[in-house]
Design goal:
The chain has helices at 10-19, 32-41, 82-92, 108-116, 155-167, 178-199, 203-208, 213-229, 239-249, 256-262, 273-283, 288-302, and strands at 2-6, 24-28, 43-46, 52-55, 58-60, 70-75, 93-101, 121-126, 129-134, 137-142, 146-150, 172-174. The protein has 309 residues and is α/β, with parallel strands linked by helices. The protein has two domains: 2-176, 3-Layer(aba) Sandwich (Rossmann fold); 179-306, N-(1-d-carboxylethyl)-l-norvaline Dehydrogenase, domain 2, CATH 1.10.1040.10. One of its GO terms (cellular component) is cytoplasm.
Amino acid sequence: MRIVIIGAGAMGSLFGAMLSSVSEICLVDPFEAHVRAIREKGLVVEQADGTSETFRLSATTEPSEIAAGADLAIIFTKSWLTSAAAETARSLLGKSGVALTLQNGVGNLDAIAEVLGRNRSVAGVTSHGGTLLGPGRVRHAGRGPTFIAGASPDISLLSDIAGTFGAAGIQTEISDNLDSLIWGKLIINVGINALAATLRVPNGILGITPACEPMMRRAVDEAVTVADALGIELPYDNPLAHVKQVCEMTAANRASMLQDVLRGARTEVGVINRAIVRRGEALGIPTPYNLFLSEVIEALEATSAERCL
């Protein structure tokens, strides 16, 4: 399978490295230093035990350098870049090629489907965690299952993707409940991302620190209440326990929102905690904890240039 990965930050690079053992991979990302390091020295993936491996991958900042005809485009960009990434995918995919979003938050699949059509759009969630350590270097900070589902289900297509991922060591299962898939991951992000970014701690600390639990529980409870009102069945029975389990599984990982805050970049709080607030307002459900976390992260974004070190 020929695969292009659009958005080669921590997760895009990590998946590119893993998939390179079974597929032809090309990474596309505007981060010039990162792309240059990969092209010149390879992509170094560091494991939790301190070992590392270097992967030789194609990488570019210019999609026009890539020949069209890819079988799969995996989109790992930030959510506000999804529509542009889908346009890039359209220019690089073959006629029967599809795009898979493994991004955070809600709304990404719809944005891709608007460009490619629902029959060429696939959504997924993954428990793998990655941290960008510097140009050409990422840490594989957590492992776990990956789930995929089609906007317009084609079992043979999903089976091809799952088979390719599985051959690369990415345990992948096909889901028949797309909303459950997306909201299951959303609630995990609600419980971890903004809190980790505010406290500036890795995921594992959140799950074992008693003082963190009340904030995590209240944010998660609000999101679950909204999901229940929307008639969405979550893929786990105890949401808070599951969020804590993910914290344990990705203990060394710096949540993507924390990585954004640390480098003064725009976060995805708008499609995570703020998304819960918007849907709560539409349903008449109060979401004060997610509102507070959204406002704190938005204030951190607005004051990043003035931060005291």
